[in-house]
Amino acid sequence: MSQSHPALALRLKPWRASVILGLFGAATLGLVARAGWLASVQNDFLQAQADQRVQTAQAIPAHRGKIVDRRGMLLAVSMPLVSVTADPRHVKLKPGQLERLAKALEVPVERLQAQLADSKQGFVYLRRHLADEQADQVRELRIAGLSFETDFRRYYPAAEEAGHLVGFTGRDGGRNDVGRAGVERVFDRELGGIDGRHVALRNSRGQLVDDAGNELPPQHGRDLALSIDRDLQYLAFRELREAVLHHKARGGGIVMLDVSTGEVLAMANFPAYNPNNDQRADPDLTRNRTIIDLYEPGSTMKPFTAAMALEEGLVKPDTTIDTGDGSYRIGKHTIKDTHHSIRHMTVTEIIQHSSNVGSLKMALQVQPSRHWEYLHRFGFGVPPGTGFPGEATGLLRPWKTWKPVDQVVMSYGNGVAVSLLQMARAYLVFARDGDMIPIRLIREAEAPQGERVLSSQTAQQVRAMLETVTQDGGTAKAAAIPGYRVAGKTGTARKIREGGGYSKSYIASFVGFAPASAPRYLLAVMIDEPGAGAIYGGAVAAPVFGKVMGEALRLHGVPRDKDAPIWVQNRPAPPPARPEPPQTAVRIAAQDPPR
Predict the structure, then answer these.
(1) Does residue 473 share a domain with residue 360?
(2) pLDDT digits over 361-388, tens only?
(3) Residues labelled catalytic
């Protein structure tokens, strides 16, 4: 008879069984409580974590809207392009597929093999921005582990002609067509739209296996119609480029406005850049100088001085002013006329011959505070309101800081800075019989309401003066257009150099409109630092105006408003002799009292 094992004779103390059972019971209760807490409190979090491991959200790119001109001609359009990606861990290649894939992608076999051999990478781009035909060749290979992303690349048919206005797009995160400059940037939200989303299921190896049935469609961008006319845009750019190259200038700008609506019909700069290539990386090339850059306008400011004096009732168009020997001294400064031939000039002749002395004598009849108020009313020191990135406000210092010489030099366009667009907008006051209207870059059905700046009588009087500038004896005969009455003003101003003072370089400009009897278009031209000899606005900028405006009027069939000259013995009839007018005294206004 065998003896029992000694361990069987042991007897556990009763309390130990209770402790063990209690521990098991507590553990069970803890697990139940934990499960209940996860199921109730942490349910959403855990579900999201599970979805992340089995679901993948793929963006459905929104198609960026087109940009067109006022007649629907393309200025910017997004072209769909496909990028091929791969997960090297799951790519399975059959014999010969590597070579065929490299050929379809147009990449070296060695490079492709190195990319696919890197098993540490879960995502690589094999080739970006393929055309649809190339992408289809890759799809036909049916290689596991490859994926396709649809992206868009912006194309600009007008290229250099409208690059500064239209702007360009660039990459931001996963998108390749986010507005970076110009109109593309201003209206990026409307053009860009909102991407959609497509949710799919994937297995443990990361491969897509099924649809999750969850899709949010994209909201495609809206098409945008600009106010510009592409034909006029091309015309303006062509003539500006030719003038800059001919005069060996540093650059130039041109702006054409519709007088009745305030719409920008053309806006160009030169040097230009092509937004379809990498030139857009140079900020000095891509800056829209007609809106952003400032310059001293010179004599194109004189019509506003005359308008101020006329509106205040201080002079009339035939009031004569003694310009002496063509110089005027104020303090330590001596102001001189560039072209002085008549001592006693009417206000009209002061504008026609561009007399600095005559202009300053008109300005000195007006209190500085009133002078500042008029300039501000004309839009100087105020942004044009287009919303364009970097739009310049201009420089118009508070009148309280003016010295007597400041008011003098402002009368003929020094001591104040403007953009070319600001100057173009200001001249609308004369073309629209004293009415100021907002400037628009976008095509709209209705013209905005204008604001009265001058009386109709004053605006018409200045307009008649501006006509004499393009006639015999004026400074801008090169701006004349056969069959049309043309009104405008030349400007020639020294450039301010860094550190103060004036350099030996000039800016030549001309601003005008036609037909003068019923203005249709307004055109402002500026040539920066002409270097081939000629420097004056009448010789450098006025011819550009004449070519562009003349072609625009003929292109759109604007009726002529000027009779053909009467010929006598093959010569134009001479103008009647004009007697020398008597001098009219000019009162000099007292300065505003200091405050």
Answers:
(1) yes
(2) 999 999 999 999 999 999 999 999 898 9
(3) 299
